[in-house]
């Protein structure tokens, strides 16, 4: 059982203070009955809670898949420019969502946002070995030697030690294409690894996290909620 004001505020559409005013104005019904105060308790997943005639959906935790465009910072707030939260509607911005890991400002693709800290931490921890998969285009011809260097693990010129990673060549030419798989996510890691191999990154997009791929129907800059099955996939990962 949860306090009614907490349940309604969890949608991100109203603050607890606003919920109290809604109840006072008779605009809230719980199983068809107007509550006396926001302190009343209800079963959030089984009670029918209506606000202004609309049934609300309770989420203990919120998980959002965003197809991140270039030009947005993976942060909750930043004085240097627009953040990924600016792509979400106001009711979601109130839910204290944060990015699960970071994508560089010019990197596109799959970015998860949530307010479930424990699972987010596990997904990012190297000891859990949750793969992050990227598509990249680079300037230069990728070779098997580049793949071997990634597979062996690399120590960069600045001393950064990178765990073994996957590099699968999709096409080789003056501008090559590849799929990169990491089990960690250090600062500019893919760009730095490929730059050391003399193949600077031209374009980078994250296409999967663990066993969760980027939804191919999700337009760039758009978001959707994860399904319960997708959250379970993340938990298994």
How would you concisely characterize the structure shown here?
With 237 residues, the protein is α+β, with helices and mostly antiparallel strands.
Description:
It is built from seven helices and 16 strands. Strand 4 (49-51) and strand 5 (54-55) form a beta hairpin. With 237 residues, the protein is an alpha+beta fold. Strands 6, 7, 8, 9, 12, 13, 14, 15 and 16 form a nine-stranded mixed beta sheet that branches. The protein has a three-stranded antiparallel beta sheet with strand order 2-4-5, with no helix packed on it. A two-stranded antiparallel sheet has the order 1-3. The longest helix is centred in the first third of the chain and has 9 residues, at 16-24.
List the helices and strands and how they pair.
Elements lengths: L1 E2 H6 L6 H9 L3 E3 L10 E2 L6 E3 L2 E2 L7 E6 L21 H4 L4 E2 L8 E7 L2 H8 L7 E8 L4 H9 L1 E2 L5 E2 L3 E6 L3 E8 L6 H8 L4 E9 L2 E2 L9 E3 L2 H9 L1
Parallel strand pairs: 8-14
Antiparallel strand pairs: 1-3, 2-4, 4-5, 6-8, 6-16, 7-8, 9-13, 9-14, 10-11, 12-13, 14-15
